[in-house]
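Before surveying the methods themselves, let us examine one representative protein, pairing a chain with its fold in token form.
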Amino acid sequence: MLPALALIANAAVTPPAPSAPTQQIIVIAPAPDVVPLIEAPPAPPPPPARLPDSVRALIDAATESGDEAAVATIMRFARQTNPETVGQIDALDAEFAAKVAEKKAIAARQRADALANAAFLDLWKGEVEAGGSRLTGNTTGFGLYGSLKLSREGLRWRNTLTARADYQRTNGETVTERGIAAWQPNYKVDDRLYAYGLVQYEHDRFLGYTDRYTGGGGIGYRVISTPTLKVDFEGGPAVRHTDFVEQGAVTRLAGRASLGVRWAILPTLNFTQDAAAYVEEGNHNATATSAIDTKLIGTLKARLSYNVTYERGALASNQSTDTITRATLVYGF
């Protein structure tokens, strides 16, 4: 009995074992109107478009040739067919343009140095023109025409020397007897503007004078200047001494205007126009020559030209307008 009570007593006085601590979980629910944000790293950019190798090879071939027109055409079509690589094409185009500009600058400096150091007898270019005709049968006759032109393009000065002679006989009578020689120096103010001088001698007794001497000067301007077309206009005063057949010798002041056109229609076909008019008291005169040149062999060309000459003070027995059509050969040197 005593042992059992001891056990009970011990059980009564023994405090209960402490219970294991409980873990508290706090859940915070989001507000019903708030969407949770999830941050993710940005996606890598897509690789840039690559210019196709075939197009790049075509562009490289065009740029290596140095042909600016061909390069411009290739670049235009490359941009149209590959719009996603326009940036790369623009970079290649800019690189080519920079190389071309550098080459042109070097060539311009070299040319300027060569012109500055050249002697006066250097750099001359010229051409000789000749033609003839012969008539037989009911009308007999023959005609001769020849001309010489020399020009020198210096750094600041441009000199031009010209001489022409035209002679024709029909049925034993002289019907054309004309000659002209002129020297014109030009001082280039810039690429377009220049000052000119003129010394000229003329002979044409069928238009009413045996000898005419002209001296003058003025201002010239290149109105159009492109690789294929050049148009020059000149104007200024002049002094003219004329030995008329009927009036005798007369010296007068005059105003002069001229127009020069050089047009390269094709690499082997060129058009030229030279016209000049003088206005003076009691007499006006003008001359114009239009010509078409076509290349034959080397520097040899064939020329078809049409000349109109007007003289207000011509002989009363003759017409005031004279025209000549020529077919000639021209040799350049």
Q: What stands out?
A: The CA atoms of residues 10 and 16 lie 12 Å apart. Confidence is low (pLDDT under 50) at residues 1-15. The helical segments are 2-13, 53-65, 68-81, 86-117. Residues 124-332 form a domain with the Porin fold (CATH 2.40.160.40).
